[in-house]
Write a structure and sequence with these properties.
Blueprint lengths: L4 E6 L11 H11 L3 E6 L6 H4 L1 H11 L3 E5 L2 E5 L12 H14 L5 H8 L3 E5 L7 H7 L4 E5 L11 H10 L5 E4 L2 H6 L6 E3 L3 E2 L1 H6 L10 E6 L6 H10 L3 E6 L11 E5 L3 H9 L3 E3 L11 H4 L1 H8 L4 E4 L9 E4 L7 H10 L11 E2 H12 L2
Helix pairs in contact: 1-15, 10-14
């Protein structure tokens, strides 16, 4: 396959110091293999400064309505208008936002539009990027289109208008890539779906040889705030005061016990040593049966498995790797017993068997997009 020009539309940011998701690893490997990749951040505006000031200022400083080449072949840029359309948990706000989504999706700035016109492949990550699908098809009707679907839209609180756009366009994508078979089955019908699991950046974990924790301490780690169950963490921390609970990418509001350490959002490379050298991995999802696809698609569960960590998680998520210690969401939990079970579990190499590398994931994804 000849090298391709690929435009990625995503709500994620490719800036040092901010977390990495699957779209970052895949885009980076595509560029490393000789493709020209344009990582395009949408879903942000001056309005974002009120909610995410640090992220907004980083984007404004480095990628304000322009691309910069951050690695050979990998260009990152951010569309930062005065206002953007956004989802809300409020039903009335979502109704009022419907015309704003239509307006927002009707225009892309020239620095992105010009690259879309010449692209071989346009990638839309689930969420806000869906509003630009029709426009991108108009700009370049010959380009292949890939729906890089990572989550069920209703699970992440996406506005009804985005879910309607997903239903409308699902059959028009050249290919839909999902990290969970169950997620693929839950999408609207008619799509050309392929299942490709998530991957792990093995080199980063293998090189994280130095522990960031005090010698002799016991440590648990939680990464990411999707469906985050604050009460579960508070319960575990209260029951096990000798264990430190390290939270990354979690917006913890209010007071916390002294053994809860809130680190904020950090670069993946900074978090990796905390994961590798932890005693317990935490996946405190506050979820319903509809979200059990997270068992297949959760990056942190794979990372915990690769680092041979026992993982504490709700019993709604199917046990799969043998390193799970489960608890019930709908019942009073004896947290001391849960933590003790996790601390006592041997760290087995089998926990990480069969996990793909990002190089494998990116190759399969690109091949599927052009199949």
């Amino acid at each position: 396959m000849r090298n391709k020009k690929i435009v990625v539309l995503t709500s994620h940011v490719f800036v040092d110091g901010f977390r990495k998701a699957s779209v970052h690893f895949v885009a980076r490997d595509w560029a490393a293999r000789g493709n020209e990749v344009y990582f395009s951040t949408v879903g942000h505006s001056r309005f974002s400064k009120l909610k995410q000031p640090v992220r907004y200022e980083a984007l404004k400083r480095t990628q304000d309505n322009r691309y910069v080449e951050i690695e050979p072949g990998l260009h990152a840029g951010a569309y930062l208008p005065a206002l953007h359309a956004f989802s809300s948990r409020n039903r009335v706000a979502n109704m009022l936002a419907r015309p704003l989504f239509a307006l927002y999706g009707s225009y892309l700035p020239p620095f992105i539009a010009d690259q879309v016109r010449g692209a071989d492949l346009v990638v839309f990550e689930s969420g806000t990027p869906l509003v630009f699908f029709a426009l991108c098809r108009k700009l370049n009707p010959k380009a292949r289109t890939l729906y890089f679907c990572r989550d069920l839209l209703r699970s992440v609180g996406a506005a009804p208008v985005l879910r309607a756009l997903e239903r409308r366009h699902i059959a028009s994508f050249s290919r839909i890539c999902v990290p969970s078979r169950r997620l693929g089955e839950m999408l609207p019908p008619g799509g050309n779906v392929v299942y490709i699991p998530q991957g792990v950046d093995r080199a980063v974990f293998d090189e994280a040889r130095t522990s960031p924790y005090p010698q002799g301490s016991r440590n648990a780690i939680a990464v990411g705030d999707m469906l985050f169950d604050r009460e579960a963490i508070a319960g575990m921390a209260a029951a096990a005061p000798e264990v430190s609970f390290h939270l990354f990418g979690v917006n913890w509001q209010g007071s916390a016990s002294s053994n809860i350490v809130v680190h904020g959002e950090r670069a993946f490379e900074e978090i990796a040593p905390y994961i590798r050298h932890a005693d317990i991995g935490l996946a405190p999802y506050r979820l319903t049966y509809d979200e059990v696809y997270l068992a297949e698609s959760s990056l942190k569960l794979l990372q915990y498995g690769y680092c041979r960590l026992p993982v504490v998680l709700p019993d709604l998520i199917p046990v799969s790797r043998g390193n799970e210690v489960t608890y019930r969401i709908d019942a009073q939990t004896e947290w001391r017993s849960v933590v003790d079970q996790a601390l006592a579990m041997p760290r087995s190499k089998s926990f990480g068997e069969g996990i793909m590398t990002w190089e494998e994931v990116s190759q399969e994804t690109l091949a599927a997009a052009f199949a």
